[in-house]
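Task card 7
Instruction: Convert sequence to C-alpha cells.
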Amino acid sequence: MKNETEIKDLVREKYTAIAGQSKQKNDSSCCGATTSCKEVYSIMSDEYRGIAGYNPDADLGLGCGLPTEFAKIKEGDTVVDLGSGAGNDAFVARKIVGENGRVIGIDFTEKMIELAKTNTGKLGYSNVEFRHGDIESMPLLSGKADVVVSNCVLNLVPNKHKAFSEIFRVLKPGGHFSISDIVIEGEMPTEWKEIAELYAGCVSGAIQKSEYIGMIKETGFTNIAVQKDKTIHIPEEVLAEYLSEEEINEYKSGEVRITSITVYADKPAKDERKCCDPGSGCC
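Output:
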C-alpha cells in the first residue's frame, strides 16, 4: 500500500493530466481517464446543465454529486470549495452569493488552479479566487467561511481526520458544510485497495460510510444529515480490468455497495475547541 506522500503524488499526476482534457474526452473515455476505461471518474458525475451559474468550460465531469444544490448558501456568504478543479462548483456558488459574497476555491493541482483562473478571467468575476493548497492544511485563516462545499474530493485525501478538522477550523461558528463524496458499504475486494489508479479514480480511496459519518461526528460537527445517497454502478468492462469473472459475480451479488453521498453538518455556534491558524498545531 502506498504511503500518504505517494498517494498525493499519484493524485496530483492524474489530475494534472485530466486538467488538459475536455469534459467530452473524459466522458468518451468513460471515466475521465488518460487511458480508455481504466479509471472511474465521469461514471459518478451528475448533470449540471440547467443549474444557474453553470459554466461548461469549468465542468470536467469529475464530481459525484451536486453539493451546491444542498448547501443552503445565501446571498453575501463566503463559500470555500475544496478541490475546486476548473471552478465548476465555485461558479455555481458565486451565482448564489452574488456580488456581495465571496467564493474561494482550493486545489493542490497547479494545472487545475491555472485553468480555474483562466475561466474566472473569462467570466470577469472579481469575488472568486483560487488558491493552490492542501486540504489537510488549508491556506485560510480560521473562521472565514460561512459554507464549505466539496465534490468527490475528500476520498482522495489520505488523512481524512485532518481534512475534517481543517474544515471545522475554517468555518465560522454556526457555519456548515455540504460535501458530496464516495463511500463504501460492505467489504471492498482486496485487489481494489491495492490498485493505485483506482485511488485516483475515487474508489479505493473511499472508506466505509459508517466510518465516514463517525469521523464527522468525532470532529465536533452537529446536525449531521445525509442529503442524498446514490448507488454507483461501475460498468462490467471496467470491473473486468481489475477483477476475475468470479470476483465480478461476487461484487455484483450486492455484498459491496459503492455510493455517492451528499452530507450536511453544522459547526456549533459556540466553538469550545478554540482552534487556531495553520502551523499552530492545536487542531
